[in-house]
Design brief:
This is Class I SAM-dependent methyltransferase. The protein is an alpha/beta fold and about 260 residues long. It contains 11 helices and 8 strands. An 8-stranded mixed sheet has the order 1-7-8-6-5-2-3-4, with helices on both faces.
């Protein structure tokens, strides 16, 4: 699909969804007036992150006092089935991230309520739900429709049916989804951010999510090297954070 075709299909998709008009307005501003916002402070934060990054295994051990090796063994069949579903999916989205980090954050907090932003195939959702199902917990997910790819039917594609009973999926932009989620549940044990990559989008969401994280809860943000929002947020709130390097990218994680 050419870039022009993708943009045109996205715009038409927005026009068909009046409930997404607020996000369309924000997108237009982000891609015109605030075009450089996505990469604000990127060099500064990549240098900062590189100087303190540890492996996923080290982070889970340091923060949660847990070993990660059992995850792949215990869920070998589930993960293999999910990988096969991704392989045959006709729509391409983001692949699996640091699944062990997410899973053991839920185990450490004995999570019953988790919120995530960004779903795609549902790899992070799968890791979360594998823990939550032990405690009849609930995952609340915010995910924008895939307007240019006709991919809505494949959102959460790798999550097996037996785990979906504890999953509530909100198909709007974060600024519409999160208030709806917080109306249903106020306090969360784990927060996982993986949606709007812009500096302003992150700063807004980080502030909102942090308010709803319980003391002792775990905050995780993917792709923190895109700009300096995560670093700036942590410094503003005097947060000591761990940085995880995973497949050439940086993830931020801390316990409140």
């Amino acid at each position: 699909m050419s870039e022009i075709t993708r943009v045109l299909k996205t715009f038409i998709g927005y026009l068909k969804r009046p409930d997404l008009y607020p996000e369309l307005g924000r997108k237009i501003i982000k891609n015109t007036v605030n075009r450089g916002n996505a990469f604000k402070g990127k060099d500064k934060t990549n240098s900062w992150a590189a100087g303190r990054a540890v492996s996923q295994k080290e982070a889970v051990s340091k923060l949660f006092g847990l070993e990660i090796d059992a995850f792949r063994n215990n869920y070998q069949e589930v993960l293999a089935a999910a990988a096969e579903k991704e392989r045959i999916c006709p729509v391409k989205m983001g692949g699996p991230g640091a699944l062990e980090l997410i899973y053991y954050a839920c185990e450490f907090t004995k999570a019953q309520h988790v919120v995530e932003t960004g779903v795609a195939y549902g790899w992070s959702s799968l890791a979360t739900l594998l823990s939550l199902v032990k405690r009849n917990g609930t995952l609340y997910s915010s995910d924008m429709p895939y307007l240019a790819q006709d991919g809505d039917q494949y959102v959460g594609y790798v999550v097996p049916e037996n785990l979906k009973g504890g999953w509530k999926l909100f198909r709007f932009a974060d600024k519409e989804s999160l208030p709806k989620i917080f109306t249903e549940n106020k306090i969360f044990d784990v927060l996982h951010y993986d949606s709007d990559k812009s500096y302003n989008g992150r700063m807004w969401a980080y502030d909102e999510l942090y308010k709803h994280l319980r003391e002792g809860g775990v905050f995780i943000s993917d792709d923190i090297g895109d700009n300096s929002a995560y670093q700036d947020f942590c410094e503003k709130n005097n947060i000591e954070t761990t940085v995880v390097e995973y497949e050439g990218k940086y993830i931020g994680v801390f316990i409140k």
